């Protein structure tokens, strides 16, 4: 039902809404969306997109065209692209992170069901890594839906660890890590601590998004919050 009433309808309707004379390939658009679903919560590189699409469609495609289709899907609100953080007018390094509007669409399009509840994960512990990526996608789309909030992700660079999301509010930045599993250790907060400790990022604290409602860090600079509570904030 989701495939026909939401995904295909959005794709097919918006295909007709483009500039007059502009031709879009519906098959290519669906395959780009399928790749985006498969790698939600991640930041695939250009070469990966092109290799996968070449394998599936048996055609050579340029990155400019693929990027245009990704941005087109961002415009349909089926997914959101979270760009890498750009600082001090330096060129951005890293690819866009993929965040899907609803993991129910992911399940419908890929014909796979992955639980997000602790109870569901107890029955399917082998899906924990995939659940973590979906939770990151959910959080990213939520942040992108907040009007006037600048959202980016921070790829690993210059020896600094990756941070899932960085929210910019005025002159301050708030790093956010999504660790959607039961046990969180000191290493899981490395990215947050590294970011907060850099004075030039002007980050007063970091946010750790978790599965369970408990304080997951004894560092006073890190605020723990379950994903379910985060989604209630507006």
Average pLDDT: 85
Strand order, main sheet: write it out: 3-4-5-6-7
- CATH architecture of the largest domain, please? Orthogonal Bundle
* CATH fold type of the largest domain: Arc Repressor Mutant, subunit A
What is the β-strand count?
7
Q: Uncertain regions: pLDDT < 50 for 5+ in a row?
A: none
Shape: globular
Structural domain tally: 2
Write down the oligomeric state.
single chain
Number of helices: 9
Q: Order of helices and strands, N to C?
A: HHHHEEHHHEEEHEEH
Which percent bin holds the helix content?
Answer: 40-55%
Give the termini separation. Answer: 29 Å
Q: How large a portion of the residues is in β-strands, by DSSP E?
A: 15-25%
CATH class of the largest domain reads Mainly Alpha
Structural class: alpha/beta
Major sheet summary line: 5 strands, mixed
- Backbone CA Rg: 18 Å
How does this model look, in words?
Helix 2 (26-38) packs across helix 3. Strand 3 and strand 4 form a beta hairpin. The relative contact order is 0.10. The mean pLDDT is 85. 41% of the residues lie in helices and 16% in strands. The chain has a 5-stranded mixed β-sheet with strand order 3-4-5-6-7, with helices on both faces. A two-stranded antiparallel ribbon has the order 1-2. The protein is globular. It folds into 2 domains: 1-113, Arc Repressor Mutant, subunit A (Orthogonal Bundle); 128-234, Trna Endonuclease, Chain: A, domain 1 (3-Layer(aba) Sandwich). It starts with a helix and ends with a helix. It has helices at 2-16, 26-38, 46-57, 63-76, 103-110, 118-123, 128-144, 190-197, 227-230, and strands spanning 79-82, 97-100, 150-154, 163-169, 172-179, 206-210, 222-226.
């Amino acid at each position: 039902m989701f495939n026909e009433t939401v995904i295909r309808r959005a794709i097919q309707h918006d295909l007709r809404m483009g500039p007059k004379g502009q031709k879009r390939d519906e098959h290519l658009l669906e395959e780009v969306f399928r790749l985006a679903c498969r790698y939600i919560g991640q930041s695939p590189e250009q070469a990966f997109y092109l290799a996968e699409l070449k394998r599936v469609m048996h055609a050579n495609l340029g990155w400019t065209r693929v990027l245009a289709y990704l941005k087109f899907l961002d415009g349909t609100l089926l997914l959101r692209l979270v760009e890498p953080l750009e600082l001090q007018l330096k060129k951005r390094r890293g690819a866009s992170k993929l965040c899907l509007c609803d993991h129910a669409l992911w399940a419908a399009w890929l014909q796979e069901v992955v639980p997000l509840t602790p109870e569901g994960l107890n029955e399917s512990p082998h899906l924990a890594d995939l659940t973590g990526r979906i939770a990151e996608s959910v959080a990213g789309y939520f942040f992108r839906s907040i009007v006037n909030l600048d959202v980016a992700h921070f790829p690993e660079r210059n020896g600094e660890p990756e941070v899932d999301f960085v929210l910019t509010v005025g002159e301050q930045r708030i790093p956010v890590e999504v660790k959607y599993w039961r046990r969180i250790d000191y290493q899981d907060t490395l990215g947050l601590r590294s970011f907060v400790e850099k004075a030039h990022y002007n980050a007063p604290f970091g946010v750790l998004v978790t599965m369970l409602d408990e304080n997951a860090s004894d560092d006073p600079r890190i605020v723990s919050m379950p994903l379910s509570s985060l989604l209630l904030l507006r």
